[in-house]
Specification:
Aldehyde Dehydrogenase, Chain A, domain 1, Aldehyde Dehydrogenase, Chain A, domain 2, seven-stranded mixed sheet, five-stranded parallel sheet, 13 helices
């Protein structure tokens, strides 16, 4: 596997020659590779290549661009297992999840490729005779894509493939914790035959490389997935020049379980939502809101099941929960455990790093359940990004919805109920970009919009057709074939 930047169709080292290590969080002695610790100069070179390539790439017919994306999808499909294993080594989540991560990339390639034969505008009737009126999409220019480590194949493809089908060129900065997956993705792009400069990859820190991409005036659109705090900083910087910006930020997602729910199904959903990807998803179930009549029994069952989850190296097919990303995540999660205790929540399960036996070689954290949590506690308001779930009780549907909506975030949500009327009310009443009925808060399909409300983002969406609005400008076109001056809205 290559361990370089990809700029203007060539694999190159950082100009400084500096590198950083990429290690397996399940086994810290497993060195995945060394990658370029790039600088502003490397970013400038990549942006220059993308800007030059844009002049010709935007003129390639969109169906032809779609054919290249379809080819990428086929390459990823053929390498799915190898890609999944590398991803598990570098960020930890279990193989069944990394296979799913790669599959999202494959699905996005096919879906975005198909948009090459759509990219619909609108044709309308003009208000004057002998005049045509229609709208069309046009590309924006160079797109700067800054992606996180928890979905190192899915999220870069969510951003890159729609940008490319619309006729933009790309500079990708992946998370420095997951450079290998991005490199393998770029190898597939190269093999598919994208022209030099159309896709570029620059490894390095968010502060240096990400900052340089955001600050470069030649980059016309930024798409960022990460923390709300960093997203706000990027928004301020982009706002100074009115640079187009799409943000997908934090979440504090809740699963609401009513007294009439299928409790066995709701329990499976809570376990998967809270501890899938070791809780390291923006859509993870970090709050469990239970109707008081079922709360005690449900919590006891949750604790019993969570206690039995098997931790370990994600490459082991029998493992259910992999490591958290690194020692820094262990420290951050541990800090929230102490906060929860001081706030008066009851630690019903876990609450510490898991260090026994082989687990001592990696960054593992016990599945953790807090009971007796009040809606205003910090552990019920702030994103922890780890295998921690807070149990809150409610007396009614109305109170449950108020609790669910009572955070600054609004990404994903879930209600379990057998009452179809209550389910429809929840769909209407919940303040979130995603609502599941009788399903957990995690999981997304690439043909539907993905994103949230409030401090989860800035109103844009990824995936689906709505993402095309991030990477295109609308142009309205009027063709007057009357042969004379016609004045719109002027009385004759």
């Amino acid at each position: 596997m290559k361990t370089q930047n990809f700029i203007n169709g060539r694999w190159v080292d950082a100009r400084s020659g500096k590198t950083f290590e990429n290690r397996n969080p399940a086994r810290k002695d497993d060195l995945v590779g060394k990658y370029p610790d790039s600088s502003e100069e490397d970013v400038a070179e990549a942006v220059a290549a993308a800007e030059k390539a844009y002049a010709s790439w935007r003129l390639v017919p969109a169906p032809r661009r779609g054919e290249l994306l379809y080819r990428v999808g086929e390459i990823l499909k053929g390498r799915k297992e190898d890609l999944a294993k590398v991803m598990t080594r570098e960020m930890g989540k279990v193989l069944k999840e990394t296979r799913g991560d790669v599959q999202e990339g494959i699905d996005t390639a096919y879906y975005a490729g198909g948009e090459g034969r759509r990219l619909f505008g609108q044709t309308v009737q003009a208000e004057l005779p002998n005049k045509a009126a229609y709208s069309m999409r046009q590309p924006v220019g160079v797109a700067g894509l800054i992606t996180p480590w928890n979905f190192p194949m899915a999220i870069p493809t969510w951003k890159m493939f729609p940008a490319l089908i619309c006729g933009n060129t790309v500079v990708l900065k992946p998370a420095s914790d997951t450079p290998a997956s991005a490199t393998l993705l770029m190898e597939a792009m190269e093999e598919a035959g994208f022209p030099a400069g159309v896709v570029n990859l620059v490894h390095g820190s968010g502060r240096v490389v990400g900052g340089a991409i955001v600050g470069d005036t030649r980059v016309k659109v930024i798409s960022f997935t990460g923390s709300t705090e960093v997203g706000k900083q990027i928004a301020q910087q982009c706002g100074a020049t009115l640079k187009r910006l799409s943000l997908e930020l934090g979440g504090k997602n809740a699963q609401l379980v009513m007294e009439d729910a299928d409790l066995d199904l709701a329990l499976e959903g809570a376990l998967w939502g809270a501890f899938g990807t070791t809780g390291q998803r923006c859509t993870a179930t970090s709050r469990l809101i239970l109707h008081e009549s079922i709360a005690k029994d449900f919590t006891e069952r949750l604790v019993e099941r969570a206690r039995k989850l098997r931790l370990g190296d994600g490459l082991d097919e029998s493992v259910e929960v992999g490591p958290v990303l690194n020692a820094g995540r262990i420290a951050a999660i541990s800090e929230y455990i102490e906060i929860g205790k001081k706030e008066g929540a009851r630690l019903a399960l876990g609450g510490a790093a898991a260090t026994g036996g082989a687990l001592a070689q990696g960054s593992f954290f016990q599945p953790t359940v807090f009971d007796g949590v009040k809606p205003g506690m910090r552990i019920a308001q702030e994103e922890i990004f780890g295998p921690v779930i807070s149990v809150i009780t409610c007396k009614s549907y109305e109170e449950g919805i108020d609790i669910l909506n009572g955070t600054v975030y609004g990404l994903s949500s879930s209600i379990y109920t057998r009452d179809v009327n209550r389910a429809q009310r929840a769909i209407r009443d919940i303040e979130a970009g995603i609502t599941y009925v009788n399903g957990p808060t995690i999981g997304a399909e690439v043909h539907l919009p993905f994103g949230g409300v409030k401090e989860t983002g800035n109103g844009h969406r990824e995936a689906g057709t709505t993402v095309l609005d991030v990477y295109t400008e609308w142009k309205s076109v009027y063709v007057d074939y009357s042969g004379r001056l016609q004045k719109a809205q002027i009385d004759v």
